[in-house]
Amino acid sequence: MQTRWGPVQVRVTVTDGKVTDVTAVTYPQDNPRDQQINSYALPELRSEALRAQSADIDTVSGATYTSDGYRESLQSALDAAGL
Q: Among the four residues 8, 34, 36, 50, which has the most C-beta atoms within 10 Å?
């Protein structure tokens, strides 16, 4: 999903109908600020997604664009997986 600061794409691993892993494969990292934001936002988003088993997860404070792109990409991946 395209965000204001660049694309965000996640890969979802599903085992027996359950989300067992979510990996951010593409995300903004062109400058130190992007790297700083994503260093704390991506692990939190992953943890929330695994806990929720859905894309219905909270926005990480200070990482609104990354959070929005992550949710949209996650929902797309879940749809493709039939979940």
A: 8
Name the residue among 72, 82, 64, 81 with its Cα closest to residue 13: 81
CA 48 to chain centre: 9
Calpha distance 12→83 (Å, rounded) = 11
Beta bridge partners of 21: 13
d(CA 57, CA 78): 13
End-to-end Cα, the chain, rounded Å: 19
Each of the 83 residues of the chain gets a pLDDT tens digit; together they read 999 999 999 999 999 999 999 999 999 999 999 999 999 999 999 999 999 999 999 999 999 999 999 999 999 999 999 98
What is d(CA 6, CA 29) in angstroms, rounded to the nearest whole number? 9
Rg of the chain taking only CA atoms, in angstroms: 12
